[in-house]
Amino acid sequence: MNVLVFSASPNHDGLTAACASAAVAGVRQAGGQAEHVPLNDLQIGMCQACNRGWGTCQQDHECQVEDGFQALHARTRQADAYVLVTPVYWGEMSESAKAFTDRLRRCEAVRRDESCLSGKPVIAVAAAGGSGNGTITCLFSMERWIQHLRGQVFDLVPVKRWTREHKLVAIREAARTMVQGETVSQGTSELNIHPTAEIHPTVLLEGKVTVGAYTKIDSGTIITGEVTIGHHTLIRCNVVIRGRNTIGSYTHIYDSVCIEGGRPAQVGSSMAAVPDRSIIGDDCWVNHGVTMHGTQLGDSAAVGLNACCDYNTRLGKGAVLANGSATHHDQVIPENCFAEGVPAQVVQEEITDEDRKRYFGLVPAMWTHYQGDQIEERIRQKQAQT
Ligand SMILES: Cc1cc2nc3c(=O)[nH]c(=O)nc-3n(C[C@H](O)[C@H](O)[C@H](O)COP(=O)(O)O)c2cc1C
């Protein structure tokens, strides 16, 4: 996740700067990329309210006042999340914050759901002096700005000279959580669910479960054990995922699939070098009714309807196991091979996307990407409305 951290003070060593540094530290702690933008170092003038007040930006969504704004506008469009820190001046944002936020709002608010902030999380920080007077009105105007741009208010943090130390911790934690997702303890479970993930209320999550951004999990699914699921992944209804499992990004797992982590390597007849565990790569496609035990799928591998993978099955990158086929334990289907039958046998090597399309009617990895992006779009729209 790329996060822009705007700060809007003329002082490079004051409270505003300290708050921005705390936010940068939180983003980096969570593995995100943070870019600090000190607005006072840029030449960004005020909005000229051209076109008799309506602005040409209403049509073309670009500002005609040429200065440092254009480059920053482009960078803002690229980011995934934002932190805006301003000193409190007269109960309001500082002048540099106002100039930037006014012009961005002019260009983007009319775009509604197409706004560059739409559905993206934003943390607003108002850094005040000793009195703290006007912090709330300042945050109020920041919140309204975020809402005009259809951003998602992730947190609003007031800080003043006397609360500096614990609020710096709060800002760091807010930024870390925004990137990483919050860890919620439920009984003995530790759930780390990204705020943009969409999980149906009937889904049961138990154990240590991590779910990435824009992943969607549909009704009746049970996920229990130590399970990590990437971003933009789709898990349909009544799926059971149990044990130690890693599931990648942009992967699809369809209805009634059963995935089990497997059994220890030293016990029983499995030849696995490490304890069996399911590792499903990125862009994989696991079709309705599939059963998999301790199976590993390379990126873009596909498993057809009602297929079975016994313990320690390995499908290489881009491999396909045909509908209704079954592997025996420890079986390997190499990269880009097509295997079919019970027990499954490789019937074609070096398959291409044309072959995949002929068999499935689509190229699974392309479909999972297309759908993953569609789901992100729908989640963004929903979150912007709430
Ligand atoms: C023109 C001006 C107006 C200010 N107005 C307020 C105010 O309304 N409420 C407040 O608590 N502090 C106010 N302050 C104090 C600043 O918010 C405070 O010093 C802040 O920490 C400055 O950020 P910096 O350390 O990054 O410069 C004001 C400061 C200035 C220069």
- Structural class comes to alpha/beta
Q: Roughly what is the average pLDDT, rounded to an integer?
A: 92
Distance between the termini: 23 Å
By DSSP (H or I, 4+ residues per run), the number of helices equals 8
* Cα Rg: 25 Å
State the helicity in percent bands: 25-40%
CATH-wise, what's the superfamily of the largest domain? Hexapeptide repeat proteins
- Major sheet size, sense and barrel closure: 12 strands, mixed
- And the CATH topology of the largest domain? UDP N-Acetylglucosamine Acyltransferase, domain 1
- The CATH architecture name of the largest domain reads 3 Solenoid
Explain this structure.
- The protein folds into two domains: 2-180, Rossmann fold (3-Layer(aba) Sandwich); 184-376, 3 Solenoid (UDP N-Acetylglucosamine Acyltransferase, domain 1), CATH 2.160.10.10.
- The protein is 27% helix and 27% strand.
- It is built from eight helices and 26 strands.
- The protein has helices at residues 15-29, 57-60, 69-78, 95-108, 135-148, 164-180, 353-360, 364-385, and strands at 2-7, 33-38, 81-87, 121-127, 152-159, 182-186, 189-193, 198-199, 204-211, 216-217, 222-229, 234-235, 240-247, 252-253, 258-260, 278-280, 285-286, 291-293, 296-297, 302-303, 308-309, 314-315, 320-321, 332-333, 338-340, 345-348.
- Strands 6, 7, 9, 11, 13, 15, 16, 18, 19, 21, 22 and 24 form a twelve-stranded mixed beta sheet that branches. Strands 8-10-12-14-17-20-23-25-26 form a nine-stranded mixed beta sheet. The protein has a five-stranded parallel beta sheet with strand order 2-1-3-4-5, with helices on both faces.
- Helix 1 packs parallel to helix 6.
- The longest helix has 22 residues, at 364-385.
- The radius of gyration is 25 Å and the shape is elongated.
- The two termini are 23 Å apart.
- The protein binds flavin mononucleotide.
- Flavin mononucleotide (FMN) is lined by residues 9, 11, 14-17, 87-91, 127-129, 131-134, 160.
- Flavin mononucleotide binds next to helix 1.
